[in-house]
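A note from the maintainers: we've had questions about how concatenated examples are separated. There is no special marker in the raw files; a new sequence line simply starts the next protein. For clarity in this README we add a label.
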Amino acid sequence: MKLRLLFPISFIILIFIIGCEPDPLTECKDLGDDLLTCECISELAIEKIDTSLCEQCELKEVRNSCIADIAITTGDKSICENAGESKDYCLHTVIVNSRNHEHCSDISGEYWKDLCYTEFAKNLTNEGLCEKITNIVTRDECFSFVAITKNYEDLCLKIEDPENKDLCIVRIAVTNTDISICDKVGNSVHKYGNCYQKIARVTNDPEICPLIKNKTIRENCENLFK
């Protein structure tokens, strides 16, 4: 008889204990500050991998970030569709983490799409991915990085900005101490001042100086060896 009584009493006590355990979501909502509440909810949502908890946050930016973080954590880019203004950032991060550049085209915004192609182009030293970049400045920087990394000056010729194109070629020429590469530089100041003269100094070769056609730069070069 005593054993029969002990079981229901123990069961009731267990239910009471469980019922007394604080609800994490309620604790977050009781913080009394919207930002603190949303940050608390976000941590809980990410821990439980539950985007419905993110919806409990009343601050749009934090709510979107919460959903994006869950997508990034799980690697599920379909979740990014619900991340509002954080959607493109979310897609970019999930795609980069997946190491599949073919999905960069899924990003609609120019900034994050270009950044996606840029990161893959640099990681893979793939100039073909640089060509997919819309922003000219970003694309030029991508070509420059790949050209210098591959030590291949002809890739510099894909750079649209004349100044950056010349500087890209100069850097490769100086790295290889090869004045024949300098002849691909368009601007005479960069060609002779930044290229010929630098190689003369690096190689400690005064015989390069007479090859400089610009008189002022040639004299500056010759003065290096006096």
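[label: protein 2]
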Amino acid sequence: MEDRKILKQHLGQLESYFHGTSSGVDPLICYLNAPVLITPSSINTVSLPAPSEHFHLFLLDSQQPRSTGQLVSWFLAQCEDNNYFHRIEAEFIPLVQEAIELLLTSDWEALLENMHHISWFQFKYFEPMIPSTLRNVWLQGLSSDWFKLKLCGAGGGGFFLGITNDLPRLQQEIPFVLSLRL
């Protein structure tokens, strides 16, 4: 455990050269070549669940690069407001922790519902991180019962993570969808 914490710190320092501040999580995942679950007391590799027949994770390519440094700076500035920071800690972080647990236990139906709450929170409180050209699609997901979107780290790209229970419809109605298989 201690070795992985140190490795994460060193990799974070390396990545910070390219993106400003870095947690080191992305390069750690690449280095270990495995998904990781980070808790306050541990960093462990985990197995992803078997693919679902009815639910699919996907990436939506907005075709618009985003700058990690600018978005992180905006977020950190927002967190200086105690009310905003409290919402992140009390509402958003528990939603994300629940989503991770639902994914790891293959509770796809509950994950779709949970992603609705994450998507709504991000649309309301992280709106500048969502490209204006994607906001109508984001709202379409919020008003539907068949797909939801959430932010990914920018990393210079314009990708967003989603979940759907109707992949053929999604690929027909929403451009630039890339299906993921776990």
